Amino acid sequence: MSEAPHRRFEGHVAWVTGAAGGIGRATALRFAAEGASVACFDVNQSGLAETQGQIEAAQGVSAPFVCDVSNPDSVKEATSAARERFGKLDHLANVAGVLRSESTLELSFEDWSKVIGINLTGTFLMCQAALPHLLETKGTIVNTSSTAALGSHPWMAAYAASKGGVLSLTKSLSIEFIKRGVRINAIIPGAIATSMHSQFRLPEGGEVELLKGAIPHIPYGTPECVAGTIAFLSSKDAGFIHGAELLVDGGAMS
């Protein structure tokens, strides 16, 4: 866990989904480095153990909770346990997500439902579970969208739809709770070097030139770049930011 420039979250509690790896792990590490106690949520139990080990090796505080964010019962059980473990909640970072690239004509209903269920419904369920606690602490939520919600990314119908939904959900929740003291924003990562991007494959007959035109070729960013942005939006440094859609894409959408 790299040293953070500040300890803005001393005495705070953060929930981070997708914490078994990638951006989620980097976010959990960043919150912990800045003084927060971190509840780490993921379906990957071994990955959660690795994240917890890294946090504890740096004298941070965390606890793992196996959770399928697309399942209401799993979310209820895991978040109730996290609330009992840490006693309160100040910050929620919704990072859990899956990527699927496939011809729309070949995309099955099951695969469509899985992507929407984790990326969009999972974000909603975690927000719904967290908000009663965040109202008590005047806390924050940062949701994770994607440049696929803004650009014309081919072969990503389910993924793009789910991430566009995250942006709309964030806007709606932000205004609904703005007068009640909860700040809610979204980040929009571009190409970030995580295992998720290894899931992208051109479908049979997919045109490489079409893909190049839709997704500008830029160097991949790191999970830590995104984690730092989540930490900023969660901190008092961003206290006047509500309903924002903050690009973390290396200029790809510029």
Describe this structure in words.
- This protein is α/β, with parallel strands linked by helices and 254 residues long.
- The chain is built from seven helices and seven strands; from the N terminus they run E-H-E-H-E-H-E-H-E-H-E-H-H-E.
- It has helices at 22-33, 45-57, 72-86, 109-137, 157-177, 208-214, 223-234, and strands at residues 13-17, 37-42, 61-66, 91-94, 140-144, 183-189, 245-248.
- It has a seven-stranded parallel β-sheet with strand order 3-2-1-4-5-6-7, sandwiched between helices.
- Helix 5 (157-177) links the parallel strand 5 and strand 6.
- The model has no long low-confidence stretch (mean pLDDT 91).
Work out the strand percent.
5-15%
Distance between the termini: 32 Å
Largest sheet entry: 7 strands, parallel
The helix tally amounts to 7
Assign the structural class, choosing from mainly alpha, mainly beta, alpha/beta, alpha+beta, or little secondary structure: alpha/beta
User: Order of strands across the biggest sheet?
Assistant: 3-2-1-4-5-6-7
CA radius of gyration is: 17 Å
Mean pLDDT: 91
Uncertain ranges: none
Shape: globular
- Helix percentage range: 40-55%
How many beta-strand elements? 7
Secondary-structure element string = EHEHEHEHEHEHHE
